[in-house]
Write a structure and sequence with these properties.
- This protein has about 200 residues and is mainly alpha-helical.
- The chain folds into 2 domains: about 140 residues, no CATH class; about 40 residues.
- It is built from 8 helices and 2 strands; from the N terminus they run ααααααααββ.
- It has a two-stranded antiparallel ribbon with strand order 1-2.
- A hairpin with a 2-residue loop joins β1 and β2.
- α4 packs across α5.
- The longest helix is centred in the C-terminal third of the chain and has 45 residues.
- The termini are far apart.
Amino acid sequence: MIFGVLLLHGLRPGSELFVEQGPLTFTFILALAVAVLLLAPVGLVAGRALQRTVVRTPTHLLVPAIALLTIIGAYAVRNNPLDVVLMLALGILGYGLRHLGLPPPAIVLGVVLGPIIESGQGQGLLAASGDAHPWLSFFTRPISAAIIVLVLLALLWPLWNRWKAHRRAQDTATTGETTATKRIAETPHCRWGAVTR
């Protein structure tokens, strides 16, 4: 959230922020530290009461209040009604993506980091403009190749875990069926009180 606020105010987070805007950055950090120290007792005392109040508030009152505050907040940034429409459209999109199993924080990070990635991509293409195929520089450098491998591993790891769990469940079911069949074959059958094998 702080990252997004810094970007909205034209401050690019990173090591340059401490060099170019040093006094502002350290004032910001000091203000956050003081706010945490002052709000800790308030949060400990009022947090539980506020949580109980929010939990007990009926949904038909809570949802319109939250929607109204988000609409006011979206409009207050630039006083532009289009921002409200964009906020509503992205909210509906986020709701749909959440039901598909995609986490909204990842999408928010993508929106916030998008401009930084685009500028880095432009710098990389400019640096490789002398090559016959500048796009290949993103795949042939050792650091970028290592990052690509890590991203592929991160994408394939959940699939691997799901496959292992499915395989383990199949093995357990097969072992369970074999054990149950063996036990039935070994147990004596009772007929009219007489034990026969």
